[in-house]
Amino acid sequence: MVDFSRGDDLSAARFDGTNLRGARFVGADLSGVVMRGVQVENLDIDAPWLPDGDHLLINGVDVIGFVEGELNRRFPGREQRCADTPEGLRAAWLVLQDAWSAAVQRAADLSPAAVEASVDGEWTFAQTLRHLVLATDTWLGRAVLELEQPFHPIGQAMPNADEDGLDLSLFMTERPTYDEVLRVRAERVAMVTDFLADVTAADLAVERRNPWAPQYPETTLSCLQVILEEEWEHLRYALRDLDAIANATNDEGAADE
């Protein structure tokens, strides 16, 4: 198997009759890619960033609207992630945390090992919760509250985060207990809840620095919307993998009968 890493630049490359069957693209920039006469049966695309104004064409049909509508149907409350008023944000956060509470309970109902199980090399359920701790620390603690050192060491960073300016020495190298993950996650949920309780329309309009790209200004509102987006996307990932773990467990049980 040939591996291409972050340092490899294949932009504008042409693949003519190339066999890419079973290839896996993780964190790759495929924007503007053109495919013609390709076999795509069982193709699995996960693209969390499908903004309005762009398009994703399959056989000439823009499918972004279909995808967004179906995701909103599957995840009631997801459509509120773009809320732009104090009241709307509070309601959006409440329904989101109800959804996460159900997911945490589902993971607990599967087995004690389920929260530390990885599917196809993706983050475990516990790691996903740790990443949401980091997302809260970044977009609320660092960007909005402007804390000098907002990061809890339990946070889970993306691979190569150090290349994006995040000091990885701030974070734990050993795996924390799941109880500790739940405790810190609850603290961060409460931090967002407390902030939203008193936020005003004027507060939402205050300009902030993008924590990863200071040259691009944000507002308190856009920072909070990033948190909502992160929460919904990672809930989708987490439930997808819990489905896979449950199905594998059921298959093993059936095989033993």
Strand order of the largest sheet: 1-2
The helix content, as a percent range, equals 40-55%
N-to-C terminal Cα separation, in Å? 37 Å
Number of helices: 6
Q: Write down the CATH topology of the largest domain.
A: Four Helix Bundle (Hemerythrin (Met), subunit A)
Organism: Micropruina glycogenica
Domain DinB-like: 96-237
InterPro entries: 5peptide_repeat, DinB-like, DinB/YfiT-like
Protein name: DinB-like domain-containing protein
What do you see in this structure?
By secondary structure, this protein is mainly α. It folds into 2 domains: 1-73, no CATH class; 84-256, Up-down Bundle (Four Helix Bundle (Hemerythrin (Met), subunit A)). 45% of the residues lie in helices and 4% in strands. The protein contains 6 helices and 4 strands; from the N terminus they run E-E-H-H-H-H-H-E-E-H. It has helices spanning 64-74, 86-110, 125-142, 178-198, 201-204, 220-256; strands spanning 57-58, 61-62, 207-209, 217-219. It has a two-stranded antiparallel ribbon. Strand 3 (207-209) and strand 4 (217-219) form a beta hairpin. Helix 2 (86-110) packs antiparallel against helix 4 (178-198), helix 2 runs parallel beside helix 6 (220-256) and helix 3 runs antiparallel to helix 6. The longest helix is centred in the last third of the chain and has 37 residues, at 220-256. The radius of gyration is 20 Å and the shape is globular. InterPro entries: 5peptide_repeat (IPR001646), DinB-like (IPR024775), DinB/YfiT-like (IPR034660). This is DinB-like domain-containing protein.
